[in-house]
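Need fresh eyes. Consider my entry:
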Amino acid sequence: MRRYTILLITSFVIMLGVITGTMYISGTGSHKENNSLLGEITVYTTLPTENVSYLAEAYEKNYHVKVNFMPMSEDDIVKQIQKPGKGDMVLTDSRILRRAAGEGWLVPYGSLHGDSVSNKLKDPNDYWTGTWYDPVVFCINKDYMQRTANFPLGWQDLAEQPDIRIGITDFLAAESAANLYFFLTAQLGEEKTLAMLQQIHPHVVQYAKYLSTPVRMAGMGEVDIAVAVQSEILRYIEDGYPLKIIQPVEGTAYMLTGTGILLDAPHGEQAKKFADWLLTDEAMLVLQSNKFYFIPCNPTTLAYKQLAVRNPSLFNQLADFPKEKRQELLDKWVKQVRINN
């Protein structure tokens, strides 16, 4: 896996060198001798600042367009997008994008890059387009694999596996962790999901506070298997931890991040160009060189083609529960699973 990632980044560097040289030859690169900005856009996002700051810096450096990311909560972003003419774009979870499109706060935008994205990862009428996604998978300690002939290949296997130590992030600690619970509920129903989580509970060594903790524990041999988002696992594999990824055979939950152009965006054309750029290898290199290993939604990119782990089976039911229902589900999990010793 480490070899694949190094090859990927090396290929990207070569490719970007060619792109940069071409820009200068064509005259496009002449703007780089001018320190003045060619434009700016305002992007509302629910992503952490550490994720988006690298993207903003790279885009401004290469294209002289300032990207003003405004990180905010889901509630705040819903309020902001209802103020036409203020912001230009949103970069957020697909659940929020589906709501924004349904309520009329986004305008359709199609492009060559967006056309390559699977219909499962974008709006059918081009109101929003997925940029990258992060599936929930298993990471198994390689020593445990050698000792065990029948290691779990799916959710039901995990629930029924005897004598296994499991690491997982507390559903109350992170949205990505809770997202797994919501997807399982949408796919299997409340009763079956809670029953499965009750089976898993006695084997959980720790309900961690952070997404990375279960992965680290698996890498250190403190647990046999961890349930985590794939990007965190790839980060640890890149650092040399003895881990192997298993994609659940029944399908899995995922965090799908995408873009939408806001209604009456004051800099809509610049926002569209930035949305297109996020679907390119250049943007994915920025993320991967800073150890954010998401799966690109654009399958024509080199980033996608050279990923050693891709094409997970995704659950076909959406977990678009309203806020009140999500809280109700979490309360049930706490009472029936988390504090059930």
Observations:
- The longest strand covers residues 129-141.
- Confidence is low (pLDDT under 50) at residues 1-10, 16-34.
- The CA atoms of residues 281 and 301 lie 6 Å apart.
